[in-house]
């Protein structure tokens, strides 16, 4: 058995075969709820095989290989291993969640979820390992179509509109990518990344391919203003599938941008990096701003996913500028921070969306205004939610702080670059990132305060009980990893620096910190403990806590109407940034929106999606 566990290609083959087999079993076993739920255990096993394969490939020099049995061409590299690791850990949480939840779902919906979620995992795993543009585009299309049928729910107009938006934008992304790769094929007569990487391409061709690919992959990544599919899809899909959208599918778009800008097209032009930085800043800022206006918990988290896509893009754009201007410190700091944040985001967004799914299961609620008091009724789920929120806001000692701190250092280094533009842009982008962090901090107060604190606002919230142990565990494990990766950041960062070195060509000696790793870990631990220590010292002079009596507020008897609401919390920002909130209506006029979502158009696209999915399955399996 030793060769089986030391050959990452065999492990990856087992994982992909397992996902495809589980997709078939999900349909066949759907009439038996408890048996079908055990497909979640199979997902966990397949995910573990993929995780081990990713770990073994983490320092592999880029090389072409072929999967045994399947014959699928793949490229082994540190970047591919990182993205495969993201897919594997997300599949692990999805398997645990389905293991505890699928038995409660209606048979037809259970068959669709159990089958298409595994098909989506197989397609995403193959996409991140693709060695050519055809496989990458094909797998992206397959995962998008599987996601479409997971979003659309029969008889639900809202979910059908969300799925239709996703279908239209995914088709546009595919057309842009086909156009970009067609230009390359006409010039090189090959779409292998290894061939494109070594070719000398004219500047006009490189610029055209970059712009087309940025548009196509930007739709997949949810870069604003190409993000229209993401919030509605997150709100309408099952929570586990929304987690896949956020933790994995958005990252495939970022992988494509990385491949095009820093890998296969050679040294990027300066304006490429500046364009990516501007798009990144806008995505991060508007993602955080729009999130505060949402009352649907999963739509709110979707906008925060877009915010984090912008933060990762700040790292990618900074690395592009650093490579162009031959600034190794900027390139390594920015890209290391971006790659680390890419991984961290998959952890805390898994905790957040699966905790939101557990709350929805137990209460039937998505609207924050109807929740309240869940910290006492669902303590472990509330703890996972709070941990994910703190990590998302980049507060120490959790992992979001460590990766964003590297990006901050990269932006400060950008400000030392040549020319007035970079002197201005570096600090300006750092300020935008700081404002984004402040918006995320406000989101902690809004989400956790309204959802989990206070008194239940509705009977549904009052009747909440802890979710199934496996469902709770699926949110709790990534939350624990957020803490461990934050404390262990000094030891983890060199791993991501090695991948950054592979892409930039600069030495992998991490330009990270002048303080010892153990001391940084101790500081990260002590920072959140210091307020508790101070509170414990001063607590001795206070009266003992009152254990009985009715609640009161500023001397008045407490009433339900005194509770802070999500609308009231966000109202000052709604007034302050009113013109910016109107941008959504200006970008998509109601007339065009109504035309695109007419019943005839929606029905035609649904049939087209079914035919396209069947054709792609035949092509992929052949």
TrEMBL record:
<keyword id="KW-0456">Lyase</keyword>
<feature type="transmembrane region" description="Helical">
    <location>
        <begin position="77"/>
        <end position="99"/>
    </location>
</feature>
<feature type="transmembrane region" description="Helical">
    <location>
        <begin position="470"/>
        <end position="493"/>
    </location>
</feature>
<keyword id="KW-0472">Membrane</keyword>
<feature type="transmembrane region" description="Helical">
    <location>
        <begin position="513"/>
        <end position="538"/>
    </location>
</feature>
<dbReference type="GO" id="GO:0008137">
    <property type="term" value="F:NADH dehydrogenase (ubiquinone) activity"/>
</dbReference>
<dbReference type="InterPro" id="IPR003918">
    <property type="entry name" value="NADH_UbQ_OxRdtase"/>
</dbReference>
<dbReference type="InterPro" id="IPR001750">
    <property type="entry name" value="ND/Mrp_TM"/>
</dbReference>
<feature type="transmembrane region" description="Helical">
    <location>
        <begin position="305"/>
        <end position="325"/>
    </location>
</feature>
<keyword id="KW-1133">Transmembrane helix</keyword>
<dbReference type="GO" id="GO:0016829">
    <property type="term" value="F:lyase activity"/>
</dbReference>
<dbReference type="GO" id="GO:0016491">
    <property type="term" value="F:oxidoreductase activity"/>
</dbReference>
<dbReference type="InterPro" id="IPR052175">
    <property type="entry name" value="ComplexI-like_HydComp"/>
</dbReference>
<feature type="transmembrane region" description="Helical">
    <location>
        <begin position="420"/>
        <end position="449"/>
    </location>
</feature>
<feature type="transmembrane region" description="Helical">
    <location>
        <begin position="377"/>
        <end position="395"/>
    </location>
</feature>
<keyword id="KW-1003">Cell membrane</keyword>
<feature type="transmembrane region" description="Helical">
    <location>
        <begin position="331"/>
        <end position="356"/>
    </location>
</feature>
<feature type="transmembrane region" description="Helical">
    <location>
        <begin position="12"/>
        <end position="29"/>
    </location>
</feature>
<dbReference type="Pfam" id="PF00361">
    <property type="entry name" value="Proton_antipo_M"/>
</dbReference>
<feature type="transmembrane region" description="Helical">
    <location>
        <begin position="167"/>
        <end position="188"/>
    </location>
</feature>
<feature type="transmembrane region" description="Helical">
    <location>
        <begin position="208"/>
        <end position="229"/>
    </location>
</feature>
<dbReference type="GO" id="GO:0042773">
    <property type="term" value="P:ATP synthesis coupled electron transport"/>
</dbReference>
<protein>
    <submittedName>
        <fullName>Formate hydrogenlyase subunit 3</fullName>
    </submittedName>
</protein>
<feature type="transmembrane region" description="Helical">
    <location>
        <begin position="270"/>
        <end position="293"/>
    </location>
</feature>
<keyword id="KW-0560">Oxidoreductase</keyword>
<keyword id="KW-0812">Transmembrane</keyword>
<feature type="transmembrane region" description="Helical">
    <location>
        <begin position="36"/>
        <end position="57"/>
    </location>
</feature>
<dbReference type="GO" id="GO:0005886">
    <property type="term" value="C:plasma membrane"/>
</dbReference>
<feature type="transmembrane region" description="Helical">
    <location>
        <begin position="111"/>
        <end position="130"/>
    </location>
</feature>
<feature type="domain" description="NADH:quinone oxidoreductase/Mrp antiporter transmembrane">
    <location>
        <begin position="130"/>
        <end position="418"/>
    </location>
</feature>
